[in-house]
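In this section we walk through a basic example: taking a raw amino acid sequence and producing a predicted 3D structure, encoded as discrete structure tokens. The instruction is simple. Fold the sequence below.
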Amino acid sequence: MLLLTTALLPVPLAPEISLYLADAQVGLFDLTGGGFRSDEPPPFWAFVWAGGQALARYVLDHPQAVRGRTVLDVAAGSGVAAIAAARAGAAAVTAIDLDRNAAEAIRRNAAANDVAVEAATMDAAATATTDVLLAGDVFYSPSVAERMTAVLRDKARAGTRILVGDPGRGYFPERLFDQVAEYVVPVPAALEEAETLATGVYEMRATIRAR
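The resulting token sequence is shown next.
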């Protein structure tokens, strides 16, 4: 795992959950020498992003969405949404990310919260069908948004319920979703250049699942 200083801290919008997080004064690219390196992805997992926080809060407040069901958290980062699903009574929870360091962070965070979450390094397109899919903050660039939209539509057609958390990154395909909740999410100013972000939780429309 990339060596950086983290501390076990409560999630601002979901303080029932604590995660190993970077200092609030640290920005994403401060940890990579100021830029992106293809051989070492930025440590997204060291932060709790607004979309993931909103999803976690929604799942904790609406446990019936996941209780007794299989849940997959894609591009999971710190694993906050997966941990919330496990706490809410999901039958089985898997969290995946393309970054091997994220998978390690998820295991550590799940253990800190005394919940069972299976973590793996893999692409969402390669996963098996699940009852519920959670995706927080996955529409942050045009190329990523296009690919993620295609994956989510395929999963929805297979019968999976899709829940997404998005703070208005700009590439979210809102036409495919219905908003089910909105939260004002506290975020580190060093990360977002703001202290809060209005963040929606959205469900992919049933008509998409039926096509």
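Looking at the output, two observations stand out. Residues 21 and 47 are 6 Å apart (CA to CA). The chain is about 25% helix and 30% strand. In the next section we compare this with other chains.
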